[in-house]
Design brief:
Strand order of the largest sheet: 2-3-1-6-7
Order of helices and strands: HHHHHHHHEHHEEHEEEHE
Helix content: 55-70%
Radius of gyration: 36 Å
Strand content: 5-15%
Largest sheet: 5 strands, mixed
Number of domains: 2
Distance between the termini: 60 Å
Number of helices: 12
Shape: elongated
Structural class: alpha+beta
Number of strands: 7
Length: 370
């Protein structure tokens, strides 16, 4: 029960989108760091003899309000219009500004701001690009240098110039080092992203090779076998019918013998395009082998299946294929059957094969069905 309530609270705070949840977790962590920094600064001002007046409380309100505004921008989805929906650079620049103003108020304990500044810059290590990291480091160095100079001039007893010079030199060494490390991580991220993209393209090509016929682009025999296995399971589960048709191009060997194999390839490709145009979006046309094709008609009884195969036959007979100055025509013979409950796919395919031979025996360019 407690875990369920915590889960609901987490969903309410972070939302349900996985990418948004990551961004909001990071912003929540940054906000928690800001709260801790505010508490530390109030403590530093108190024990350092500073004044906890309007400036300090105004800084506190602006710091908390700024982080709340960033969180709201991300949580509402408004930040998605930007290249970096996490608003990482904006958050870091805001936190650096808040830290610099806090440095001007911390007095003797102002050195505590430096590790906080390091954490702020490290917060962007896994998000920032190299250019942004260097720009933010220069911004931090310039802003802190200006604050140190102003405080050394206005309150030399609390901010001795010699100490402020030492602090500035320390930052001048520390900030470029952090920026360089961030830049290196950025380059590593970019290389990993490129490698992932290349691997994704290679896997997609391998998937296409494994499941698609290279010539026609249709599903190959292996892929069609998997699709028929899935359809058989769906049929058993939901008690619906499906049909299978074996399609053979008539006198295809004659086309190869007279016009060459390149002409045969052109005919196969033309039939594949015509077949896909003739069939429904839910039907699947695959190259079964050579000039033989297989059609899977999911969730289809025999009368609609016959109508679909008639469309396929007419579309094929209407083809006028230009090749090498010749006009090629082609027809198809089709063996169509419905899957019967209790039989295997092999039995259904065997029956479709027998019906295909019947169609050829009947003179070709026809459909034989049971």
């Amino acid at each position: 029960m407690v875990m369920s309530h915590l889960q609901r609270l987490g969903d309410l705070w972070l939302g349900l989108d996985p990418a948004q949840r990551i961004r909001l977790r990071q912003t929540s962590l940054a906000s928690a760091l800001m709260v801790v920094s505010i508490i530390v600064l109030h403590y530093a001002v108190r024990i350092g003899g500073g004044e906890q007046g309007l400036l300090l409380w105004g800084w506190t309100a602006v710091s908390l309000g700024g982080m709340a505004a960033v969180f709201a921008a991300i949580r509402s989805g408004w930040s998605l219009r930007f290249r970096d929906p996490s608003l990482t650079s904006l958050q870091i620049a805001f936190a650096i500004t808040a830290a610099a103003i806090g440095y001007a108020q911390a007095g003797p304990l102002r050195g505590a701001v430096f590790p906080v500044l390091t954490l702020i810059l490290m917060f962007g290590m896994f998000q920032l690009r190299a250019r942004n990291a260097y720009a933010l480091s220069l911004f931090a160095l310039g802003l802190f240098g200006a604050v140190m100079a102003v405080m050394a001039l206005r309150q030399p007893e609390r901010y001795p110039p010699a100490v402020e010079v030492g602090h500035f030199l320390m930052l001048a060494c520390m900030l470029p080092a952090v920026a360089t490390l961030t830049a290196r991580l950025s380059r590593i991220r970019r290389r990993l992203r490129e490698q992932r993209e290349e691997l994704g393209r290679a896997l997609a090509q391998l998937q296409a090779i494994a499941t698609r016929d290279e010539l026609t682009g249709l599903p190959n025999r292996r892929q069609m076998q998997a699709l028929m296995d899935q359809e058989l399971l769906r049929s058993l589960r939901h008690h619906h019918d499906f049909c299978i048709a074996l399609v053979d191009l008539d006198h295809f060997k004659r086309i190869n013998d007279v016009h060459g194999h390149a002409a045969g390839d052109a005919v196969l490709c033309a039939f594949a395009q015509a077949g896909q145009a003739a069939l429904r979006a839910t039907d699947v046309l695959a190259r079964w082998g050579g000039e033989e094709f297989l059609v899977l008609l999911p969730d289809t009884a025999m009368p609609p299946a016959v109508g679909g195969m008639e469309r396929l036959r007419h579309h094929t007979a209407a083809l006028d294929i230009a090749f090498g100055g010749s006009r090629l025509a082609v027809t198809v013979s089709i063996g169509l059957t419905g899957h019967r409950r209790g039989e295997t796919l092999a039995q259904t395919l065997e029956r479709a094969d027998r019906l295909l031979y019947q169609a050829k025996a009947q003179g070709r360019n026809c459909i034989s069905n049971d």
